Amino acid sequence: MASKDKFETYKDVFDEKTLRTLFKLESEGYFEELRSPISIGKESNVFSAVKKDKTYVCVKIYRVNTADFKKMYNYISADPRFEGLQKKRRQIIFAWAQREYRNLLMAYEAGLNVPKPFAVKDNVLVMEFIGFNGEAAPRLKDRSPKNLQKFSKELIKNLRLLHKADLVHGDLSEFNILNYKDKPIIIDFSHGVKLNYPSAYELLERDAKNIKRYFSKYKINIDIENIKNKNGI
Questions:
Q1: What mean pLDDT do residues 34-53 have?
Q2: Where in the sequence numbering do the catalytic residues fall?
Q3: Could you read off the pLDDT of 196-209 as tens digits, one per residue?
Q4: Domain boundaries, the chain
């Protein structure tokens, strides 16, 4: 039986409504309890969580009280999918979580290497856990793959697929690419936009330059136009 008591540990971190949301998702069977923190930030906290069958999921919790909702609003208010959004803290953060879920689902259905999204409720997103035995896969910034050339080609293939699906990551770098068994897994899609977003192509250009910059440190040349080209996969 689900119990609110198990979330009391987090009452100094999350507000009461967030605790109720966690309890609701737990009672619906998405996870049984939060385990280890994967990342802690001002905008969100990410935890591993275990299900009743002892498999793991990832739970991303957007922080209502400390997130820069005004900055979030500036980004999301220009997104046609969220037209008419009011400038209210809780509504904006809920929409931000919803946008990440929807972007992840689009990317997953387009065949990209991304965590599969399972559920979103208010400011909490539940998705596939990428790792082994409860230990999260490292970010690319923390562990380079053994075969960088092969890794870069797989990443470019994924970015073309993303572009082909009319979606741009919008905040891509070695900080939000996981190195899972020497395979790139793209994460953190909250900044993702469709190609009808006002500055979508500028964001695509920035993503491509960030990837080029990272791999150039290892003497691997990345053709930016190759990333931006959604054909020829």
A1: 92
A2: 171, 188
A3: 998 999 999 999 99
A4: 13-135, 137-228
